[in-house]
Amino acid sequence: MKQFFSVADVDDLRGIVEEALRLKKDPFAFEDLGKRKTLGLVFLNPSLRTRLSTQKAAIQLGMDVMVMNMDKDGWALETRDGVAMDGKTVEHIREAAAVMGQYCDVLGIRSFPKLQDREEDYSEGLFKKFISFCGVPVVSLESATRHPLQSLTDLITIREHWQQDRKPKVVMAWGPHVKALPQAVPNSFSEWMCKAQMEGIVDFTIAYPQGYALSEAFTPGATVTNTLEDALQGADFVYVKNWSSYEDYGKIHPVSEKWMLDNGKLALTNQAKVMHCLPVRRDVELASEVLDGPNSLVIQEASNRVWAAQAVLKRMLEQLN
Ligand code: CP
C-alpha cells in the first residue's frame, strides 16, 4: 500500500478488517517490521484519537515516531503554485513535503477543509500536493473530504459487534451541532459502508434533515431518508454525526425537528449499538443517557483506532521492506 487516502486504496475490505482484528489479538506479532523506520505525523489541526492511536500503532510495529504540529510549530505554508510569496506564507509545500520525506519512511497528514470554497476543498489540492512532493507513502489522518482511518475503525467495530448470520442494518444519522463541521467523517463513513453494502456485508441507510444531503459521489447505493424515525426502525447500528451543508456549502440550516438521538428514539431500533467518532458534544449532538448507556460503543470504537492504523501501517511497511 503506497497511500491510504480513501476506500479505493483497499482492494480487500474483509481482508484488512480481519487483519486488524488479528493484530488486536496479538499486537506485537510484527514488532520488528518497522525497526529503523520512521513515521512522521503532521497535524495542521487538533487531534486526540488520531494522534495517539497512530503513534501507538507505529510503536507496536517497532517504528520511531515524530510528530509535527505544523499549525503551531511550523512555518506558514504556501500551497498555491505560481504566486510570489510576498505575504504571510513562509515555506512552500513543495519544499516542506519534500524535506519531511527525507526524514521519514512513511508520513501521515491531517488537514481540515476551510468550508469556504467547495471546489477548492473537494479538489483535495493540499493532500495531492503533499503526496506528490514528499516521495514516501502517505496515510491520511483526515483530509478535507475523508477520514479513512476512522471509517476502517468503524467497519472493524461493526464486524466485531455483529455475530448474526443476516446483514446488520447500519444507519448514519445526522445530529445537531452549534458549529459548522466538515463532511469528511460522514462522506468517508458512507463511502466505506456503500462499498461494504456492495460486498454484502451491511445494509446502509443515511438520515438527515432537508438541506444536508451529502455529495452523491460518496453515497452510491445508500438508502436515504429525511425522517429519522423511519431510518431508526430495525436499525442494528446507529452512527451519529453532524455535518454542515454540502449544497449550501459549509452553512448550518435551522432544523425544527428533534434530531438528537436519545433513549426514546433508540427504543425504535433493534436495540442498536450507537457509534460516534468523537469528540462529541453531549446533549447537543447525542444524549448523555445514550453515551453513558449500555448500547454505546464509542469507547470501544476509539480503542479500535489503534488496530485500523496498525493494519494500514503494516501494509505500508511490507511494501517498503
Ligand atoms: N475521531 C477523531 O479523528 O478524533 P481526533 O480528532 O481526536 O483525532
TrEMBL record:
Pathway: Amino-acid biosynthesis; L-arginine biosynthesis. InterPro entries: ArgF'-like, Asp/Orn_carbamoyltranf_P-bd, Asp/Orn_carbamoylTrfase, Asp/Orn_carbamoylTrfase_sf, Asp_carbamoyltransf_Asp/Orn-bd. It comes from the Bacteria. Its EC number is 2.1.3.11. The keyword Oxidoreductase does not apply. Carbamoyl phosphate binds at residues 47-50, 75, 110, 147-150, 277-278, 305. GO terms for molecular function: amino acid binding; ornithine carbamoyltransferase activity. Gene3D superfamilies: Aspartate/ornithine carbamoyltransferase. Residues 3-160 form the Aspartate/ornithine carbamoyltransferase carbamoyl-P binding domain. This is N-succinylornithine carbamoyltransferase. It comes from Parapedobacter pyrenivorans. The lineage of its organism: Bacteria, Pseudomonadati, Bacteroidota, Sphingobacteriia, Sphingobacteriales. The gene is argF'.
